[in-house]
Amino acid sequence: MTKNNNNAKDEQLNKVTIGPSDVLSRNTGVGVKDDINSLKSYSRGGTLLEDVFMIEKINHFDHERIPERIVHARGTGARGYFQATKDISHLSKASIFKVGKKTPLFTRISTVQGPRGSTDCCRDVRGFATKFYTDEGNWDLVGNNFPVFFVQDAISFPDFVHAVKMEPNTEMPTAASAHDTLWDFVSLKPETVNTVMWLMSDRAIPISLAHIQGFGVHTYRLINEKGDSTFVKFHWRPVDSGTCSFAWDECQKIAGKDTDYNRRRLHEDIENGDYPTWDLCLQILDDETLKKFDFDHLDPTKIVPEELASLTPIGRMVLDRNPDNFFCETEQVAFCVSHIIPGIDFSNDPLLQGRIFSYLDTQMSRLGGPNFNELPINKPVCPFSNNQRDGMHRHTINNTKANYFPNSIDDGKPKEDPKGFVSFPEKVEGLKARVRSETFNDHFSQATQFWNSMAEYEKRHIVSAFTFELSKVGRKYIRERVVNEILANIDDTLCDQVAKGLGIKPQKKKHAQKIPQKPSPALSQSNLLPNNIRARRVAILVDEHDSSVSDKNIKAFAQLLANEKARSKVISSSLASFKSIEGTEIVPDEPMVGSPSIFFDAVYVPSASQELLNNGDAVHYILEAYKHCKVIAFTGPSAATAALLKHLKLKSDAGIITGETPADVFDNFKLSLKNHRIWDREKDIQSIPA
C-alpha cells in the first residue's frame, strides 16, 4: 500500500502545468510583487545587487537576440496544412502523399541577401521553405521562388554569398545586388547567368508573397514500396492568386514607405480569411523523359521546361493561421535539407549535397547546439526516441538506464525501425577527383531561352534592371565585362540596349556555343495571371471637401469588390469624417500620406470633381497609380470625368475606365485588374510626373 501511495504521489508531482499565468512571476515560478521599482538601500540610494528580480529580468533581456541567419535572415511565416489529392503510391511510399491525408506544416518565405532589419521589397530571390509535420517525421522542403540557383557546386556557395552581400569595406549596400562585388563575381562565373536573368526579371520583385511560385530547385528521388526510384522536381504553384510583380519604381518607393509591406500583406490576408493556397506539383523525370534533355537534370542552374516534363499536381497547401509569437515560431524554425522521410531521397546534385550539411550546421550555430529540434516549432508530432543525450538547451528528460545501442538493460529499446528510412542503393563507380561534369558546361542556352520566353514588357523591365544595377557599379571594366562577355552571349538586343543605357560600345566577344531552345511560355508571368481579383486591394479615393461624393457609390463599389473577395479602403487627405451628397457621414479608413497608391493594386474615384483637382495629394495619388500602370476607375457625370482626365493628361487605355455608376464600370474594372497591370502604358508615361 505504501509503495502504491508513493507512486500516486510521484505521478501527481510529475503533472506539471505549463502555460501562461495571470500572476507575474520569475522564471523559477516565484511571484513578483513589484515590477516597477528596483530594490534600493533607501529611496534615493543605489540599487542593490541582491535585487534578483531585476537581475533576472535584465539578464534575460540582454540575451534575447540570437544570431540571425547568414542568408534568408529577413522572412515571415505562417502555419497551415497540406492535403494530398493524387495517388502517387507507384512513385513514393511516403505516407504524406496518401490521398485525402492532411498534414500540418509551417512555411517561411524570405529574402536572401538582406539582414533581419532590411526591407521586404527589394530585388532579390525569395526563399520558400516548408516544414511538414508528418506521421513519419519532419520533412523540410527548402527552396526558392526561382527554379534555378547561381552556382553549380556547393563549394562556390560561400563565394556567391560573400559577393552578393554588403561589400566588406563599407557594409553597403543593404539588401541590394547593385554593387561591384556581385557583378564582378557574375562576370567571371558564367554559370550564374541563367539565375541572374531571373534576378533581373520581374520575378525578383513579387507583388505579394501569395503571388509567387515556389521551387525545390534540385532534382530529388521518390522511392516506392518496391524500392524503385524516380527522379522528380518539386514546384509550388499558386492556386488563385497567379504570379505577378511590382513595377520597379513602385518597389523602391514601398521599400521606403513600409519595409514590412510583404509580411504585413501576408499577415492581413490570413487574418481576413484570404488564405494563400498553392498546389504542390511534380515534374516526373522518368528514364524516357530524361532522354529528351540536352542538359543535365542534376545541374541546379538549369530548369526542366514544362514542355519536356509537365506539372502534375499531387496536393494542396493552405496557409490559414498566423504565428502566435514571431520569435518562437518564425525566427526559431529550423529548416534542414537533410530532413527527409521514407519515400523521398536525394540526388547527386553537387549543390544539394553541400546543402545537406550546411543547413544542419547553420541551425546548430544559430540555436545554440544540437537540440534545436526540441523547440516546439521544430519538434516532430510523431513519437520519436533515440540515444542522443545532453548538450545545450536539452528539453527531454530521459528516464532510461541505457543510452547506447545495442543494449539489453532496457530490453534493447529504442529498437531499429524495420520501416525506417533507407537510402536508395545507387550503384557508384569512378575515380575520386575534383571535377565538374562536362554536362554542366552550357551556361547560356537557358538564359537565352528565358529572354526569348518573355513578353515585350518583361524584356523592357529586364533591360531596365540590368541598366539600373550596372549603373551602380563603380568599376567601368566590370560593367564592360558584363555587357561584352555575358549579355553578348545571351541576346544581341539585350546587349545593345543595356550597352546604350550605360554608354558602352558593345564588343560582342561571343564564345559560347548555345544549344537552340524554343521559348517556354510558363517562364513568362504574362501567362501566369489569375482569372480572378481575389485578395486584391483597391483604394477608394475621395476628397473631404467634395460635397458631391456619393456614399451610395462607395458602398456599392466596395460590395462589388467584396463579392469577388477583393478588399477596399476609403482614402482621403485626413481621417476627418465628412458629409456625402446623400447627407450621410463618410469616415475614411486611412489618409493618403499613410496609404499611398503604391500600397494598392488599383484605384477607384467615385467622384470626378473640381475639388479633387484642387487637392494636390489626390492628383499625385492618381498620377502615381497611372505611372505604375494600374487600373483606375472613375464614376460621375461624363463631362466632369472628361474634364478631369483632360486636366491630368491621362491617355485612354484599357486601364482607364469611366461611367456614371459603379455598375457601369465594374465589369471592365474587374477584367483589367485580372490582367494585373496595363504594361503597354509604359510607353506613354515618360511625361507624366509622379
Explain the overall architecture:
The chain is of the alpha/beta class. Among the domains are: 61 residues, Cytochrome C Oxidase, Chain J (Irregular); 259 residues, Catalase core domain (Catalase HpII,  Chain A, domain 1); 148 residues, Class I glutamine amidotransferase (GATase) domain (Rossmann fold, 3-Layer(aba) Sandwich). It is 28% helix and 15% strand. Strands 1, 2, 3, 4, 5, 6, 7, 8, 9 and 10 form a ten-stranded antiparallel beta sheet that branches. β6 and β7 form a beta hairpin. α5 runs parallel beside α11 and α13 runs antiparallel to α14. The chain is globular.
CATH H-tier superfamily of the domain at 75-164 and 206-374? Catalase core domain
Radius of gyration of CA atoms, rounded to a whole number: 29 Å
Shape: globular
Beta strand count: 18
**Overall pLDDT, averaged?**
93
CATH topology of the domain at 75-164 and 206-374: Catalase HpII,  Chain A, domain 1
Name the structural class.
alpha/beta
The CATH architecture of the domain at 75-164 and 206-374: Beta Barrel
Active site: 72, 144
Cofactor: heme
Domain Catalase core: 25-413
Enzyme class: oxidoreductase
List the helices and strands and how they pair.
Blueprint: H1 2-14, H2 52-62, E1 75-84, E2 102-111, E3 126-134, E4 137-144, H3 157-164, H4 180-188, H5 193-199, E5 214-215, E6 220-223, E7 229-238, H6 248-257, H7 261-271, E8 277-285, H8 287-290, E9 311-321, H9 326-331, E10 344-346, H10 350-366, H11 445-453, H12 456-471, H13 476-486, H14 492-502, E11 537-541, H15 551-563, E12 567-572, E13 578-579, E14 585-586, E15 590-591, E16 602-605, H16 610-613, H17 616-627, E17 631-635, H18 638-648, E18 656-659, H19 662-674
Parallel strand pairs: 11-12, 11-16, 12-15, 16-17, 17-18
Antiparallel strand pairs: 1-2, 1-9, 2-3, 3-4, 5-7, 6-7, 6-10, 7-8, 8-9, 13-14
